[in-house]
Specification:
The chain is an alpha+beta fold. The protein has two domains: 83 residues, 3-Layer(aba) Sandwich (Glutaredoxin); 109 residues, Glutathione S-transferase Yfyf (Class Pi), Chain A, domain 2. The chain is built from eight helices and four strands; from the N terminus they run βαβαββαααααα. Helix 1 packs parallel to helix 3, helix 4 runs antiparallel to helix 5 and helix 6 crosses helix 7. The longest helix has 28 residues. The chain is globular.
């Protein structure tokens, strides 16, 4: 039986491709992790027009390209069994991913400033933008966790929604050590997700990047 060939194109960052990489790790599925330099992207690859929507990440599956980070994560989660165990669970998992997409623009200026694409004071952004949005989003996630008996957001096993939340926490714990201090349920969830053996190995072995 021929194996599906996966290629994931992104920059040398965790950022918007990391959940996809973690899904490959959880599934034990081989893939080509193609990390593009910014200079190569802007000067060579993007002008060629071969990537959907002229943006990364892009997942190539047996030569067919899929764009948009959440769509890629959802596709891989369904391929590998991390999207929810029933149609209802899948819908709830997808709703959390959509809610994360609504939350992300509030933290995006902080991350773009880290990368040098915007020029803001990071402390000001953290206090005035990131933490207020975090509090609303974490409050919503705590309700999901309190309704769950497993310690995961939905159902009895890890889903890509858990990866989205845990990776967000990891990113901001780097720059705000007290980011989850007042959110014990979020801290416990983060630790539970990070303790999954395949995922823990990936995190320990992955390249060090700013975000």
């Amino acid at each position: 039986m021929r194996m599906t060939k996966y290629k994931l194109y992104y920059f040398n960052l965790r950022a918007r491709a990391e959940v996809a990489r973690q899904l490959f790790a959880l599934a034990g599925e081989p893939f080509e992790d193609i990390r593009v330099e910014f200079e190569d992207w802007f000067n060579t690859i993007k002008p060629m027009g071969d990537m959907p929507f002229d943006a990364l990440p892009v997942l190539e599956v047996d030569g067919h390209k899929i764009a948009q980070s959440i769509t890629i994560a959802r596709f891989l989660a369904r391929q590998f069994g991390f999207a929810g165990k029933s149609v209802y669970e899948q819908a709830v998992v997808d709703s959390i991913a959509d809610q994360y997409s609504d939350f992300f623009p509030h933290v995006r200026p902080f991350l773009r400033t880290l990368l040098g694409f915007e020029n803001h004071d990071l402390d000001t952004l953290l206090i005035e933008k990131v933490r207020p949005a975090r509090d609303e989003f974490f409050g919503q996630m705590v309700k999901m966790l309190q309704a769950s008996e497993s310690g995961f957001l939905v159902g009895q096993t890890v889903t890509y929604a858990d990866l989205l939340l845990a990776e967000h926490v990891s990113t901001f714990k780097q720059y705000d050590p007290h980011y989850v201090r007042d959110w014990p349920e979020i801290q416990d969830h983060w630790a539970k997700v990070r303790a999954i053996p395949n995922l823990s190995k990936w995190i320990n072995d992955r390249p060090e990047t700013i975000y």
